[in-house]
Amino acid sequence: MDLVLKIWRQKDAEDKGKMVAYNVTDISEHMSFLEMLDVLNEQLVSSGEEPVAFDHDCREGICGMCSLYINGEAHGPDRGVTTCQLHMRMFNDGDTIFIEPFRAKAFPVIKDLVVDRSAFDRIQQAGGYISVNTSGNTQDANAIPIPKPDADEAMDAATCIGCGACVATCKNSSAMLFVGAKVSQYALLPQGKVEAKDRVMNMVNQMDKEGFGNCTNTGACEVECPKGISLTTIARMNREYLSASVTED
């Protein structure tokens, strides 16, 4: 395939930035999207130009670093995949592809397609943990009876990789699907009960402090989430938050 790539180039957070067009040729439909960008960068380096900066690590769809906004969609036109799992067979010969960073006030651009998502780390640090007895008298997790439906829902919530697609696709740049998943992961399990009230209060407060918007139930976040995190996690987070607020008062 021969393609035209219109890519957002931005030197740093202070730079205004602009879209720059590049041509790439002989792209195999079996390549991943990131492999296609590697081909482009090899061409740029060979011609003495600055390569396009983009985030990536595992290339197996489990780390969330490869987050790109492709043709107006977080992670591109496929569903249930991250950018590194997106393959070029989703595009056609002669296509023009627009590639941008995830855009949100809480995700400032570092360079080109790389954004600072440390806001998610700070939300996690605010409450994404449990008390664990490490005195040598620990209890085997398998000895704690947990209803299978609860275990399944907790595992579904725990599949969130924190990529930020929910924020990028939300018209309000809301992080509530991410926070809802992290709250639900622990709220459904007995191990998470100790910090339950502090967790939801601290994580929601940190989310607001970081500048994320609120949820208006559009549902775009669930559609674009590569792990299919359900909107029910937001409902659970709201219930947990309301319960904790009433108890505090």
Structural account:
The chain is of the alpha+beta class. The chain has 2 domains: 3-111, Roll (Ubiquitin-like (UB roll)), CATH 3.10.20.30; 117-248, Alpha-helical ferredoxin (Fumarate Reductase Iron-sulfur Protein, Chain B, domain 2, Orthogonal Bundle), CATH 1.10.1060.10. The protein contains 8 helices and 7 strands. It has helices spanning 33-46, 118-127, 148-158, 165-169, 176-187, 196-210, 220-224, 232-248, and strands at 3-9, 18-24, 69-70, 73-74, 96-100, 109-111, 114-115. Strands 2-1-5-3-4 form a 5-stranded mixed β-sheet. The chain has a two-stranded antiparallel sheet with strand order 6-7. A hairpin with an 8-residue loop joins strand 1 and strand 2. Helix 2 packs parallel to helix 5 (176-187), helix 5 (176-187) crosses helix 8 and helix 6 (196-210) packs across helix 8. It is elongated and about 60 Å long. It starts with a strand and ends with a helix. The mean pLDDT is 94.
